[in-house]
């Protein structure tokens, strides 16, 4: 993809944060996890969010995903503003428009891989679109393991099931929080290639929080957060470029 | 290590609420039972000791006709002694006074013409003993009775309790049925000891002449009371009196007499209460022990890493074991201590309840003894520690390495775990076979016990399958509860041991209740069936079901003269000594018996009994006394005879094991009263008209109940309703305790699954769905327990009925509505138990749940 700043502005953003502030405590003890972040996440793109510990990258993702609420500012998923949504509306939004891949413990141990994949649809009482589901399952390459319980799958396979689950409901945005943090490098590469494929081939919008420069190199763009602010962005990142930028946080 | 136990207790207060509650309830019932028992014993002892204060010796016949008579006087039925003997005894050195004492039956009618008396206590009548020292009653108002001219109402003293409940006062005229109606004028009101009477029993005191005429026989007394001169000890008096006595009569000391009285009361009242309340305590503690075991199993699993860390830091196995046990014991001690206090409340409440139900008991504060307190504490701590022993041992076996491992620790299957299922299968199979085919009561009992243990052992295996099947049924294959239902089902099935342990608490409680219910229903149904088979009349006049209150033998004769009545047969019950053993006897007019009752004649004929030339025996007793053999009979007046067995009859609910002609019986028994008169109406008389006529005709007798066939059958079975009521109270108790257990397990499960719930919430589980997830799981566990309990209880009930049917005529009968009610109660308990854990699951902090390591 030959991305330029121009294409970014043309594509309508899948999710936006406007002057997002997240404060913990008040007065002298106030800590700002997010301190006025404005960012748009373009549709059909793979965005990585990086930054040192405590930079606010996880908070930003939690707020974008409707898992947490801002102190001030707005979050939009498509045209929907999340600030005024009730807990129930947020839940339904997550169920219908968002997908999640966590670092670990992505799957319910009592459900089979296949059941885990359709879980958000089942919770919503929706009938899965069989063609789409087949596409997803083919993409994650799990064909013969759908009947297995999570305990019977390897870590990489478990994360692939999680990716499939995130895609099953055809969400507007998929959020991934350190999806390869618990994997060995071979499995990690597999999962990252899969994430890249789902953006390139299936046109998904993906936001991934990571601290691993090699993982960030799979993204179209990397956003760097420091002390709750957006400090830099890097188009078409390479591992070395990301590493170099990250090292500057130490200065 | 004790510090750790203490910290664990205080840090996990909420998790231990369920355990605390279970122990508390069990101990409270135990302490309540023991306190009530001690209180009743003490109060009865005090009462009789005060009342019989002046009695130094009692002279009575050596001929004991019956010691355990249901229908006889308190302390057993003896042959009478001559009243004249009192004159002889007055001359004995050391004797201050000697008076004949006549004790018998007399039903007092109140101001409204209805019989006075509670639901069971005796209605006593006798002679008013002029000596204050010897009379257990003392005047509180009015004067002693005096003989009056013939034709006048006789004078009588009644006890204050009877006066109050019958709304009678000094100078009133009323009737006492002895059973012959005697018109009396009340001239005195009496107290007994410090009280208004012996519990709710009524007392009427006549002059000796009147008492001999109506209650006893001329020149005879039940016993002779002797008072000592100042300074003479009871033993001296007994020794002196004994020398003056003819053969066949002997003296006992006043102290021994008081003790015999209180012992007899103890047998009559307290044994029943004790059994009744101890069953409560046992069920409570049994259900509690399962709940405790379960809670500690879960806690141990959750603390695996903690314990491993302690082990890695150098704690020995024994230290871990001691610490776990100490924690349980401390909790048990705390809950038991509060339970003892609760027990006092229960004792007070039950006492009030019994008073309200008409079993009025002597007044007096609660008797709190050290025995009660120590035993209740010991049992509470013991049960808690014992139930926690298994989990504590498991905790001590955690390898130190477990502290370092990240992975969830699968519980290592212990040696017992491997043999559990096969052992359970063998016990269940063997138990069922033994119970079904065993034959003897002992075999059935052993089979039932083995079955129960087998079912408990097989719980985990059953839980998995049962939850799956139940889950699909209840959620209509997932359509009803959707994914939430499926998830709940999987959750309930994921740790079958935990599910089954949780459900077992409920199962055991429900099984006990179902057993009682099934047994009671069977007895009730059998009694009704029996009435259907045997009741050949149209209407029945009955005395109250309890207490041996009687109908005058004259009533049957009177009713025969009522227009529209074709036949009226009086049937009564008494006590005699037959073949040297105390026996309850049914007596009836054998000439007309067949017109009112269809007896199941197995041999001989009813006609053979006429004139007392033969006795009838039930087929059970016919094993001892077959048709044609002769038996020795000692009647209540002490006369004896040897008569042939002329009839063998099959079991009939209200019939005792021996049948004697009424005319013969009443010649040898004082105050022979009928318990029922069965009336056959003449053809063409409508039941309504016959009933109206009878109701009018029985008014002079204190208006006993006139019942049709259905009412009569219900009345016969009414005693069983008490058992049913008890079983419902037990059900509530068992469910409350099991509910605490289920709630506890669920709360712990919700805690364990925080991350899972967080994940579910993140991918779109609404709060409502989170609540319903926990609720469905709880419902499934509760249904599993309740269904298991109902099935087990029904089987045990069937076994019990079968075992009992060898001696009595009862057949298995279960009432589907009642069983459904129990099921519904169990299901409701499940939903209720889920309330708090469900709320917690719904309120879960999403980010914290996801971030939890």
From TrEMBL, chain A:
Q: Which SMART domains match?
A: AAA
Report the residue ranges that make up the ABC transporter domain in this protein.
15-246
Q: Which UniProt keywords apply?
A: ATP-binding, Nucleotide-binding, Transport
A GO molecular-function descriptor = ATP binding
The signal peptide stretch is none
Q: Where would you find the membrane-spanning parts of this chain?
A: none
Question: What CDD domains is this protein classified in?
Answer: ABC_MJ0796_LolCDE_FtsE
Name the PANTHER family on file: ABC TRANSPORTER RELATED, IMPORT ATP-BINDING PROTEIN
Protein name, as recorded:
ABC transporter ATP-binding protein
Q: What is the lineage of its organism?
A: Bacteria, Bacillati, Actinomycetota, Actinomycetes, Catenulisporales
UniProtKB/TrEMBL annotation, chain B:
The membrane topology noted for this protein in its Swiss-Prot or TrEMBL record is: Multi-pass membrane protein
Family recorded in the similarity comment: Belongs to the ABC-4 integral membrane protein family.
Question: Is this entry keyworded Transmembrane?
Answer: yes
Taking the first listed entry, what is the main subcellular location of this protein, grouped into a coarse class?
membrane
Task: Give the subcellular location.
Answer: Cell membrane
Q: Which UniProt keywords apply?
A: Cell membrane, Membrane, Transmembrane, Transmembrane helix
**Protein name (database record):** ABC transporter permease
Q: Where is the MacB-like periplasmic core domain?
A: 19-243, 500-696
- Annotated Pfam families: FtsX, MacB_PCD
Which parts of the sequence belong to the ABC3 transporter permease C-terminal domain? 279-400, 729-845
KW Transmembrane (keyword) present: yes
Membrane-spanning segments:
16-36, 275-299, 320-347, 367-389, 423-445, 465-488, 500-520, 728-750, 778-798, 810-835
């Amino acid at each position: 993809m030959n991305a330029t700043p121009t294409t970014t502005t043309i594509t309508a953003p899948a999710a936006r944060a406007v002057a997002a502030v997240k404060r913990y405590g008040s007065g002298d003890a106030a800590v700002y996890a997010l301190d006025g972040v404005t960012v748009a996440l373009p549709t059909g793109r793979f965005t990585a969010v990086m930054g040192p510990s405590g930079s606010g990258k996880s908070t930003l993702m939690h707020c974008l995903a409707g898992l947490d609420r801002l102190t001030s500012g707005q979050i939009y998923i498509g045209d929907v503003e999340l600030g005024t949504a009730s807990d129930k509306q947020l839940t339904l939004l997550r169920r219908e428009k968002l997908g999640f891949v966590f670092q670990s413990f992505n799957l319910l141990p009592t459900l089979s891989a296949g059941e885990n994949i359709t879980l958000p649809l089942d919770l919503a009482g929706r009938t899965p679109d069989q063609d789409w589901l087949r596409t997803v399952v083919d993409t994650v390459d799990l064909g013969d393991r759908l009947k297995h319980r999570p305990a019977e799958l390897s870590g990489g396979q478990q994360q692939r099931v999680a990716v499939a689950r995130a895609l099953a409901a055809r969400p507007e945005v998929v959020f991934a929080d350190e999806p390869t943090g618990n994997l060995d490098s071979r499995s990690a590469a597999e999962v990252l290639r899969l994430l890249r494929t789902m953006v390139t081939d299936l046109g998904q919008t993906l936001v991934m929080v990571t601290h691993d420069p090699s993982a960030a190199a799979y993204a179209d763009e990397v956003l760097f957060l420091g002390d709750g602010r957006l400090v830099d962005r890097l188009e078409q990142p390479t591992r070395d470029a990301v590493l170099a930028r990250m090292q500057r946080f130490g200065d | 290590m004790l510090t750790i136990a203490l910290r664990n207790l205080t840090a996990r207060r909420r998790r231990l609420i369920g355990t605390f509650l279970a122990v508390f309830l069990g101990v409270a019932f135990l302490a309540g039972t023991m306190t009530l028992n001690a209180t009743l014993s003490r109060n009865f002892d005090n009462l009789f000791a005060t009342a019989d204060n002046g009695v130094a010796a009692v002279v009575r016949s050596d001929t004991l006709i019956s010691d355990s008579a249901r229908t006889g006087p308190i302390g057993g039925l003896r042959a009478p002694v001559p009243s004249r003997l009192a004159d002889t005894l007055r001359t004995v050195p050391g004797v201050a006074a000697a008076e004949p004492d006549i004790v018998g039956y007399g039903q007092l009618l109140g101001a409204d013409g209805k019989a006075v008396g509670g639901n069971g206590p005796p209605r006593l009548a006798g002679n008013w003993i002029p000596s204050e020292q010897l009379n257990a009653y003392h005047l509180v108002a009015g004067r002693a009775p005096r003989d009056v001219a013939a034709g006048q109402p006789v004078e009588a003293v009644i006890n204050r309790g009877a006066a109050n409940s019958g709304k009678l006062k000094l100078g009133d005229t009323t009737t006492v049925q002895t059973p012959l109606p005697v018109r009396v004028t009340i001239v005195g009101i009496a107290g007994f000891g410090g009280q208004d009477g012996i519990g709710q029993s009524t007392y009427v005191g006549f002059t000796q002449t009147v008492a001999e005429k109506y209650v006893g026989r001329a020149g005879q007394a039940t016993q002779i009371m002797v008072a000592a001169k100042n300074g003479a000890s009871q033993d001296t008096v007994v020794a002196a009196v004994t020398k003056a006595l003819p053969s066949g009569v002997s003296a006992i000391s006043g102290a021994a007499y008081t003790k015999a009285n209180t012992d007899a009361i103890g047998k009559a009242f307290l044994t029943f209460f004790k059994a009744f309340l101890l069953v409560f305590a046992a069920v409570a503690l049994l259900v509690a022990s399962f709940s405790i075991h379960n809670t500690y199993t879960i806690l141990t699993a959750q603390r695996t890493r903690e314990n491993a860390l302690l082990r890695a830091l150098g704690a020995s196995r024994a230290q871990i074991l001691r610490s776990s046990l100490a924690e349980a014991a401390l909790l048990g001690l705390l809950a038991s201590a509060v339970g003892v206090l609760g027990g006092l409340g229960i004792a007070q409440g039950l006492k009030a309840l019994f008073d309200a139900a008409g079993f009025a008991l002597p007044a007096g504060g609660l008797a709190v003894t050290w025995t009660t307190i120590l035993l209740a504490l010991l049992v509470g701590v013991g049960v808690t520690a014992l139930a926690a022993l298994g989990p504590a041992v498991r905790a001590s076996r955690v390898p130190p390495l477990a502290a370092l491992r990240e992975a969830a620790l699968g519980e290592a299957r212990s040696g017992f775990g491997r043999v559990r299922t096969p052992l359970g299968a063998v016990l269940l199979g063997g138990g069922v076979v033994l119970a079904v085919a065993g034959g003897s009561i002992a075999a059935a009992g052993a089979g039932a016990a083995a079955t129960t243990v087998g079912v408990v052992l097989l719980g985990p295996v059953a839980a998995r399958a049962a939850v799956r099947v139940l889950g699909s049924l209840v959620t209509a294959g997932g359509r009803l509860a959707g994914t939430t239902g499926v998830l709940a089902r999987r959750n309930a099935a994921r740790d079958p041991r935990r599910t089954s342990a949780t459900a077992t608490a409920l199962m055991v409680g429900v099984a006990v209740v179902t057993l009682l219910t099934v047994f009671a229903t069977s007895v009730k149904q059998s009694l009704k069936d029996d009435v259907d088979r045997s009741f050949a009349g149209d209407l029945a006049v009955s005395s109250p079901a309890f207490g041996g209150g009687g109908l005058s033998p004259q009533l049957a004769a009177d009713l025969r003269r009522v227009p529209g009545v074709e036949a009226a047969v009086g049937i009564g019950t008494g006590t005699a000594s037959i073949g040297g053993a105390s026996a309850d006897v049914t007596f009836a007019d054998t000439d007309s018996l067949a017109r009112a009752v269809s007896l199941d004649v197995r041999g001989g004929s009813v006609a053979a009994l006429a004139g007392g030339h033969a006795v009838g025996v039930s087929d059970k007793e016919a094993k001892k006394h077959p048709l044609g053999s002769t038996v020795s009979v000692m009647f209540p007046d002490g006369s004896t005879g040897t008569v042939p067995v002329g009839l063998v009859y099959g079991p009939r609910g209200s019939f005792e094991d021996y049948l004697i002609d009424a005319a013969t019986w009443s010649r040898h028994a004082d105050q022979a009263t009928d318990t029922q008169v069965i009336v056959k109406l003449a053809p063409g008389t409508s039941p309504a008209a016959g009933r109206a006529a009878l109701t009018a005709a029985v008014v002079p007798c204190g208006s006993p109940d006139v019942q049709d066939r259905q009412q009569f059958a219900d009345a016969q079975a009414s005693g069983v309703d008490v058992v049913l009521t008890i079983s419902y109270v037990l059900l509530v108790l068992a469910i409350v305790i099991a509910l605490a257990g289920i709630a506890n397990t669920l709360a712990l499960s919700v805690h364990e699954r925080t991350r899972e719930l967080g994940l579910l919430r993140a991918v779109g589980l609404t709060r409502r769905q989170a609540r319903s997830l926990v609720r469905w799981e709880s419902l499934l566990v509760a249904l599993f327990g309740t269904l298991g309990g109902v099935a087990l209880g029904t089987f045990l009930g069937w076994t019990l009925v079968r075992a009992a049917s060898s001696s009595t005529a009862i057949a298995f009968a279960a009432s589907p509505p009642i069983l459904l009610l129990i099921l519904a109660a169990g299901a409701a308990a499940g939903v209720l138990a889920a309330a708090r854990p469900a709320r917690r699951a719904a309120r879960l902090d999403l980010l914290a749940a996801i971030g939890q390591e």
